[in-house]
Design a protein that fits this description.
The chain folds into two domains: 104-187, PDZ domain (Pdz3 Domain, Roll); 191-340 and 360-475, Alpha-Beta Complex (2-enoyl-CoA Hydratase, Chain A, domain 1). 31% of the residues lie in helices and 23% in strands. It is built from 15 helices and 22 strands. The strands form four sheets. Strands 1, 2, 3, 15, 16, 17, 20 and 21 form an eight-stranded mixed beta sheet that branches. One of its GO terms (biological process) is signal transduction.
Length: 488
């Protein structure tokens, strides 16, 4: 695994009781050679370290002080750069492989509690009957309100065959539900698909992992075996936080012309100035067969709609941006997260690493996604009455010390009308119940199908849309631009 990690790319932002990010792995030692060191500051650090060791009220271990010093350096950088101790590095590797030790829950936060987005099929959580929208209020009898999502997830992770008790609040039950689960190895399948009605299919990618491309090929072939004359396909990237970069390139390449540019990156070091193409070596390596060769030729021409929302980040934004730039698909939904940076994982020891932001990435037309996101071609809310949940989600631009977009100025203001609208949506969200993606109640999916059939689509009213898109309209016009193979 170690050698493989030194060359893997990752692009994302979240945790799913697993992991997601935009990533590459690389060796570190060679890059330190020749760099000037601030000897005066190093001397000051040594003196402070010594005073803490000798004068602090109680003894502090050297390892703890040094780990915290490293973490302090990353605190001065952007939110996606971090020191990965033994446990964090192990979890990162597990997440990219699509397997981890846990309960099998995709979770978020609501009102300070852990909210179940979806149980993973054939996991301890699904077998125990845990349902989407359940709120986890206690873990092993201890209230969890106020914990961060990361801390709550850590409590649910653990060693295999160990037990954990969850207290669950369910809207249809008057009393809390208490279930005891046994942690086990979870194999997460990131691709789902089905024919939603004759001639039309739904393909969902929930996270870009190492097996994602092979899984997608199998699902598409299954669709075509059921519907040989497919009239339209909906690619669902909603709430997809990202994952490995080769997966994003491969998914894009499945629908784009051969060998076109998919994404480019630019950073301080020469290695970060690259363009990635729809070629096998960029998504499947230079050795071995091409997994996309197994796809039916018709997939290159099938009418395509891509669904995105504020939970769509990084690798999913790479796919949406590339398909939008080449006008291969109609992007439908709400503005994406805006995580347009690449993190490189430098393995420091056998069990530790650092995750460092090394580049911004750009769509084939040279658009920078960082702190901005992808604007859909058709803005459609998550429900027919308005988008309560999407308005409550934070975006990259909301993070403290987020990396700026290098192609436009920061600091947009929010007017009173937008603030009032946000208050209205918050109240709406308190009354709303999220629907299952891919179901008949999935409003955005139904609008995507309408678009594929040439029927009217219920888009966001123009009044609400103006304030959100005015700045973006000036920066990008697909009709006037042509994709570039390189970004200089």
């Amino acid at each position: 695994m170690g050698s493989k990690l030194k060359s893997l790319g990752l692009v994302g932002f979240g945790v799913v009781v697993g992991v997601a990010a935009s990533l590459q792995y690389s060796a570190l030692a060679q890059k330190m050679q020749g760099l000037p060191l601030p000897l005066e500051k190093l001397s000051e650090f040594t003196e402070v370290f010594g005073m803490i060791k000798s004068d602090y009220v109680e003894a502090v271990e050297d390892e703890k002080l040094l780990d915290e010093a490293i973490n302090g350096m990353f605190g001065a950088l952007d939110p996606h750069s971090a020191y990965l101790d033994k446990k964090a590095f192990k979890e990162l590797r597990e997440g990219t492989e699509g397997k981890f030790i846990g309960l099998g829950l995709e979770v978020g936060m609501e009102d300070g509690y852990v909210k179940v987005i979806s149980p993973i099929e054939d996991s301890p959580a699904s077998r125990a009957g845990i349902l989407p929208s359940d709120l986890i209020t206690r873990i092993d009898g201890v209230p969890i309100k106020g914990l961060s999502i990361d801390d709550a997830v850590k409590k649910m992770r653990g060693e295999p065959n160990t037990k954990i008790t969850l207290t669950i609040a369910r809207k249809t039950e008057d009393k809390p539900i208490v279930v005891t689960l046994t942690r086990e190895l979870i194999k997460q399948h990131s691709v789902k698909a089905k024919v939603v009605e004759p001639g039309y299919a739904w393909l969902r990618i929930s996270q870009f992992q190492e097996p994602t491309l092979d899984d997608m090929v199998k699902k598409i072939n299954a669709i075509y075996s059921q519907e040989p004359a497919l009239k339209g396909l909906v690619l669902d990237l909603r709430n997809d936080p990202g994952g490995v970069l080769p997966g994003a390139i491969g998914v894009s390449a499945a629908f784009l012309p051969k060998d076109v540019a998919v994404v480019s990156t630019n950073g301080q070091v020469e290695d970060s100035k690259r363009t990635y193409y729809a070629k096998r070596e960029f998504y499947a390596g230079r050795v071995g067969s091409d997994p996309l060769a197994k796809l039916p030729a018709a997939v290159k021409q099938v009418p395509l709609v891509v669904l995105i929302n504020t939970g769509s980040a990084s690798a999913s934004e790479i796919v949406a941006g590339a398909l939008q730039d080449y006008r291969r698909a109609t992007i439908l939904g709400t503005q994406s997260y805006g995580k347009g940076s690449v993190q490189t994982v430098h393995q420091v020891t056998d069990e530790t690493a650092i995750k460092l932001t090394t580049a911004r990435y750009y769509t084939p037309l040279g658009r920078a996604i960082q702190a901005k996101g992808i604007q859909p071609d058709l803005r459609v809310e998550e429900t027919a009455d308005g988008d309560g949940f999407n308005a409550l989600r934070s975006r990259e631009a909301d993070l403290i010390k987020h990396l700026s977009n290098d192609k436009e100025a920061e600091g947009e203001t929010t007017d009173l009308d937008e603030l009032e609208e946000e208050k209205r949506l918050i109240e709406l969200a308190k009354k709303s119940v999220p629907v299952e993606f891919g179901s008949k109640e999935d409003f955005q999916l139904q609008q995507a199908l309408n678009h594929l059939k040439g029927l009217p689509v219920k888009v966001t009213p123009l009044k609400k849309l103006k304030a959100e898109t005015a700045a973006n309209d000036a920066n990008f016009s697909p009709a006037k631009a042509k994709p570039n193979a390189q970004r200089n």
